[in-house]
Amino acid sequence: MKAIFANVPTLTKALVSLLLFCSIAPQVYMYRLNAEADADSDILSVCPFIGLLPGFVMYAPWTFLTATFYEDNIITVLCSVVVLLFCGKYLERAWGSKELLKFVIVTAVLSNVVTMFGILLSYYITADDMYLYQVQINGMSGVFSAFLVAFKYLIPEHRIAILGGRVSIRVKRQQNLLGVATAISIISLILFKAIVFYNLVNIGWVIGWIYIRFFKYQDGIQGDRSETFAIQTFFPEFLHPDISPIIGFVSNIVYGLLVKLNCCKPAPRNYDIEIGVAVPGSARAEAERRRALALKALDMRLSKPPTPASSNAEPALTSRPDVLFDAEENTPSNVDLNLK
């Protein structure tokens, strides 16, 4: 725990402080209202000035952002603080404060907007006012699922180690992490009718992928159109043959709309936007082939147990495992995996 709170960058501190404020203030507000209300009155369980209520949002549009930093119970508050410290500290050192802030705002606001439209659709289908005034959108689950996409983009060959290294997850197997998050959201939807949590988790990572794929600038280049960051790589490999046609159809529609709106540049003619693969024979295809081979070789090298000879010749690989949250050492400036 000491390592979590050590050397926390400025923006991460600000985000954690905002999370604590937006989570504590509504509890004080609701406690005072409930204390002053009549005994026969219903207990207020929502805070429309910080949480996002679809039927009240026109009077409090700032809740599209503040709702993200509002956790409504102590367990989710503590979990969110720890995750935000872990992820924010790493991403702020990797991207800088400005870029991390932009990523958080984009994924937070758009996740809430899309979730709100989903709830409004449920209202128009059922004509139940509960969806307007009792279903509150709040929580950081959308931003956290987008963080998983950011880690795949930055460090695909590293691993997340927890519990002193006894449990580790290779970031390259990003579909495992997202699969766990998706499974939890489905279970929560079935058992607890957590429609907001379900939508935020599954919308947040898609928005994070779209932003990094098409809009984010890295080293003067907009987006990451590589095959290794195609959207189908976020799904288990055995599903790729079945989902590729669907992904291709949806991707072409979304990308064409973004191009028409001048939100991003059109792809070159020798590039397949559906899955992010360059046409064979092009310079792009050759660069992708070399990058894939280099990543495969590095992955095989990291997965092999160290030998006595290699431990003497390469102390850096054996004495410092490729652990994601060793924040001082494992920033992208020290571990370059772009392999241009």
TrEMBL record:
Residue numbers spanned by region Disordered: 302-340
GO terms for cellular component: Golgi apparatus; membrane
GO biological process terms on file: retrograde vesicle-mediated transport, Golgi to endoplasmic reticulum
Highest taxon of source: Eukaryota
Composition skew (Polar residues), residue ranges: 330-340
Transmembrane segments: 12-31, 43-62, 74-91, 103-125, 131-155, 176-192
Keyword line: Membrane, Transmembrane, Transmembrane helix
InterPro entries linked to this entry: Rhomboid-like_sf (IPR035952), TMEM115/Pdh1/Rbl19 (IPR013861)
Membrane topology qualifier: Multi-pass membrane protein
Database matches in SUPFAM superfamilies: Rhomboid-like (SSF144091)
Cell location: Membrane
Protein name according to UniProt: Transmembrane protein 115
